[in-house]
Amino acid sequence: MAQLTDGQVDDVLREAEERLASRGSGTAPTVTEKLQKSTQPQPQPAGTKEKLSVRQLQKSTAPPKESAGPDWFDLPKTDLTSEFKRDWQILRMRNVLDPKHQKKTLRANPPAFSQVGEIIAGPTDFYSSRLARKERKRTLLQEAMSSRDDKIHTKSAEIRRKKASGGKGAYQRFLSQRRKQKG
Q: In which domain, by residue range, is 157 found?
């Protein structure tokens, strides 16, 4: 079947209305015959106005979209919970958490269509990139703060080591280790 333009569809609908109004006089052509005739282009005079058709009378109120569509794998609409809002705010402020790593800033409003999930490690990641049970956190905020705390603890331990080297305590530790090796 050939593609129909909006004008042709309006003409077919208008004729169907007229046929329904006459209550089937019997001599009117069928819809398929009208469609076949309407696929041929028909010139319209420049000065005529279009009649009001059924298509223009009906107001189509489209319901809000529940998914992003098949091009986006039907990604569902974002469920704006308090946890999601907090995590979105943390993601937006990730430059504050780690100022040495520059990341692209995110928009202020959360996306209209998104999904939150949990990454499950596969069997091949057992030793290489798996998090131990102690390292796993319940929220994104706890995870971000723990990584920040780890950096702070390692830096402070490094500073303490540098300050302690060359002092009396460092020399006594050195002597006690030497005694342990001899005896």
A: 82-114+137-182
Residue 143: both structure tokens together: 């995870």
CA 15, CA 151: separation in Å to the nearest integer?
A: 76
Helical H segments across 58-97, by residue range: 82-92, 94-97
> What is the model's pTM?
0.47
Cβ partners under 8 Å of residue 72, min gap 6: 113
Beta bridge partner(s), residue 76:
67
Q: Of 123 and 9, which is predicted with more confidence?
A: 123
Distances 1 to 35, 36, 39, 42, 69 between C-alpha atoms, Å:
9, 9, 9, 18, 26
- Residue 27: which pLDDT band, with cuts at 50, 70 and 90? low
φ and ψ at residue 67, rounded to 5 degrees: -145, 165
Asked whether residue 5 is domain-assigned, the answer is yes
CB 57 within 8 A of CB 17: no
On whether both 98 and 175 belong to a single domain, the answer is yes
How far is it, in rounded angstroms, from Cα 140 to Cα 177?
A: 43
CA proximity to 8, closest of 45, 53, 57: 53
Residue 60 within any structural domain of the chain: no
